[in-house]
Design brief:
- The chain is elongated, with a radius of gyration of 15 Å.
- 68% of the residues lie in helices and 8% in strands.
- Strand 1, helix 1 and strand 2 form a beta-alpha-beta unit.
- The chain has one domain.
- It has a two-stranded parallel ribbon with strand order 1-2.
- The chain starts with a strand and ends with a helix.
- With 74 residues, it is mainly alpha-helical.
């Protein structure tokens, strides 16, 4: 995955670069996308790292986590 480094997608989805590439400028975005399209090893590495993360991003899991947070507040 390639996401902008400005917010939640960078920290929550790409885990600050652990499972995805980030960019701040349009040129960096092009470079990151080109890297994944031309470097089979990078594609494989990031794909394997993000696979478990992607499976965990579901509506049901979101509801579970939100419910846990609300219960802690109340």
């Amino acid at each position: 995955m390639v996401v902008h480094k400005s917010g939640g997608a960078w920290s929550d989805l790409a885990m600050n670069g652990e499972v995805g590439l980030g960019y701040e400028t349009a040129d960096e975005a092009v470079e990151a996308i080109a890297k994944l399209l031309t470097d089979a090893r990078a594609w494989s590495d990031y794909s394997m790292k993000s696979l478990g993360r992607v499976r965990d991003i579901t509506f049901d899991r979101f509801v579970e986590r939100l419910t846990e947070l609300v219960r802690k507040i109340l």
